[in-house]
Protein: Amidinotransferase
Amino acid sequence: MISSLPASILMVELPSGGLWPEGYTLHKGHTQESLNHATVAATTTGIIPPKKLLTQQWEQAIKRITDAKIDITFLPYPQELLSQDTPDYDGIFIRDVGMFVKGKWVKARFSVFERQLEADVFARLIQEKFQIDVIELPPDAYLECGEVFFLETPTGSYYFGGLGRSNKAGHDAVIHILKPDHVFLLESTGFHLDTTCAPLINPSGNLVAFMYAPALFSKKSIELLSTLNAPLITLNPEDTCGMEANLGSIAVNGLSLPGIFINAEEFSTPGVEAHISSFEIARSTSPLPYFHHAGGSYHCLTNEVRL
Structure:
């Protein structure tokens, strides 16, 4: 969720034993398109992230965020996730488990059923820390919040929702509360919407562009995005999660705030970096390859606190 600079960014501390010490976990939602191909590739090649290097990447990412004058509120990595027979390390991706909506916390309902414990545990931690109510979604509603961008701008509010691991009922439940001025529910081949696209916000808080890779989106979604009253910046699939086994860099998965865009590497699509700079948006990058193998990057690792 994005508007003016948030009071804080929510992140999760690394567990003492590191992340994915026995390799990455495969996840898939209701559809074949919801398969996270990055984890398939990492599992197939037997990648296990060295604790020291992963920690260095993490610390460098924290420095990028704090250097941008963004405050971070850390939550402990929940013991409940580590004590499972197969420990769940995807809880580091705090974006997925829910979102702050009008001073409350909407708890995600995962179509990847084995990840639901993450949503349950973090909802309790957030409720206790911030003393706020938790909103439960209807039984037929699925919403993983890596599928959501919500922007409040001086000229109106925008809701972008992905239909990969989430469904219309899940988005409708949140839209009913937010009542955004503009709604874009989008079909893509990315397992989460934030691996395929990103908004750009200028220092005044206005939506000035929307970056996306048309090759990953349905014709209907491309037509819908053409109605957006902001320029569309076309990306090559290489700057997203990629297409099936042809993995991309997910450079698009960045922390996008007014006048700020932080991600793991520069865009390879010609002209995109210059386009971003033209909006007076401060750019910062720091590599996160061992998080990329799990399918996540800066947007996945952060969640705006909106109280």
Observations:
- The chain has a mean pLDDT of 95.
- The chain has one domain: 8-305.
- Residues 157 and 180 are 5 Å apart (CA to CA).
- DSSP finds nine helices and 17 strands in the chain.
